[in-house]
Design brief:
Largest sheet: 7 strands, mixed
Helix content: 25-40%
Mean pLDDT: 94
Distance between the termini: 17 Å
Number of strands: 18
CATH superfamily of the largest domain: FAD/NAD(P)-binding domain
Shape: globular
CATH class of the largest domain: Alpha Beta
Low-confidence stretches: none
CATH architecture of the largest domain: 3-Layer(bba) Sandwich
Structural class: alpha+beta
Number of domains: 2
CATH topology of the largest domain: FAD/NAD(P)-binding domain
């Protein structure tokens, strides 16, 4: 029987695994994708480093973790309270993942959770089944709802109310001297615009722009880029990259009652189970395109310690 199973290899799940690793607690990490990090991923193209997810971050990452992972020098301050990772935000994901030695089950999807003889049963979509003493669910609400439906339908129904913004993140690089004024248009299709000049991400004298665009998931990337170029009278970019992650931007629950809903859901979870991730932050994880990663990390750390206390009891 496994001590701890973490379902989901995004930032929160990795933070939980990292904390368990430090405390030498056995764990297994299950991730449905081919890569870790969830929506956080970076690409290098034509000498430029661009992000398909979180790009500009609030300067609120835990300093002890940055020191432990040797990432202090990997960061550049772009404004008073905002930072970027010089090698892309995936730098943080890779640094955590490189410290993990526990088993990883990649490209494995969990279909449902149950209980058998006082332990948790994890049923996989391929028919396999694992058991565990404790479970950390680090998955978006739409997937957590399916996993929990047979085990705790009352919790699952609360998670079914979540829905998501359909954002494409469009990265365009231009010579800074060629750029016209970039302003935020009133069109709600433009969720945000990030601009970073003279950074390690691009060649000297160039600017990296990231647009958050509200379009249907199946929209053609070229059509979205052409709309941006027409809006701002932009020429052909030096390079471009566009990405869409269906669950990157949760919309539904950040109202006055959100904090209480999350606390109630967590209080209703069975003993030895935690629910973490960006969908369950008490503070909205993104503000005008700038991401807060600190609460996601802290959720993972807290969940790890909660599971350790449960195992000891």
């Amino acid at each position: 029987m496994r001590d701890v199973v973490i379902i989901g290899g995004g930032l929160s799940g990795l933070a939980a695994a990292y904390e368990l690793e430090k405390q030498q607690i056995d764990y297994t990490l299950i991730e449905v994708k081919r890569h870790l990090g969830g929506s956080i991923h970076s690409v290098t193209q034509d000498g430029c480093i661009m992000d398909g997810g979180a790009f500009v971050l609030f300067d609120s990452l835990p300093t002890d973790m940055l020191h432990d992972l040797d990432l202090v020098e990997a960061i550049t301050h772009v404004e008073k309270d905002k930072i970027i990772f010089n090698g892309g935000t995936q730098t943080l994901i890779d640094a955590i993942a490189d410290c993990l030695t526990g088993p990883r089950l990649m490209r494995m999807a969990v279909s449902s959770l149950g209980e058998i003889d006082g332990r948790y049963a994890i049923c996989m979509e391929n028919g396999l089944m694992f058991d565990a003493k404790t479970i950390i669910i680090a998955a978006p609400a739409r997937y957590a709802e399916r996993m929990l439906f047979n085990l705790r339908q009352d919790i699952a129904l609360q998670l079914a109310d979540y829905y998501y913004d359909s954002l494409h993140r469009v990265n365009l690089v231009y010579p800074t001297a060629d750029l016209p004024a970039i302003y935020s248009p009133p069109d709600p299709g433009f969720a945000f615009i990030n601009r970073v000049d003279d950074s390690p991400r691009v060649p000297a004298g160039h600017t990296l722009l990231q647009f958050g665009m509200r379009f249907a998931p199946q929209s053609k990337h070229e059509s979205i880029i052409n709309l941006i170029r027409a809006q701002y009278d932009l020429g052909e970019p030096v390079t471009q990259y566009i990405a869409h992650w269906p669950e990157a931007d949760m919309l539904s629950s950040y109202d006055d009652a959100h904090d209480e809903r999350v606390r109630q859901i967590r209080a209703q979870l069975p003993p030895g189970m935690a629910l973490i991730g960006s969908d369950y932050c008490l503070e909205h994880p993104m503000w005008r395109g700038v991401h807060r990663l600190d609460e996601r990390i802290q959720q993972g750390r807290d969940a790890a310690h909660t599971m350790m206390e449960y195992l000891q009891s």
